[in-house]
Write a sequence for this structure.
């Protein structure tokens, strides 16, 4: 079980905003990258289930306050990043929403 970065996010926007919000965040890999890692380690994937969750930016940011240093840095990042790149990372500046993708993968060692 893990969060995954959007497949269309080729500029690492999703991981950048996660790191601004939570400095302990390392990386959310794309689902295809996870599949390659698991299969490359000799496992056979028997099932993958995905889900999406839509949040307002404010709710996603919680428990970090919008007027905190992290909240202000995130607001600046979202304002300065081109909208088309944000959309590829499932972030819509116009509606103030973010979509997070999660997955559950079941794999077996043959």
């Amino acid at each position: 079980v893990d969060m995954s970065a959007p497949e269309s996010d080729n500029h690492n926007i999703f991981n950048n905003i996660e790191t601004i919000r939570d400095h302990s965040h390392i990386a959310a890999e794309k689902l295809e990258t996870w599949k390659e890692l698991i299969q490359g380690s000799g496992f056979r994937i028997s099932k993958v289930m995905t889900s999406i969750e839509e949040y307002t930016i404010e709710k996603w940011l919680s428990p970090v306050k919008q007027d905190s240093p992290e909240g202000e840095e995130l607001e600046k990042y979202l304002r300065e990043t081109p909208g088309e790149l944000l959309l590829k990372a499932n972030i819509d500046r116009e509606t103030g929403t973010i979509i997070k993708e999660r997955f559950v993968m079941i794999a077996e060692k043959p």
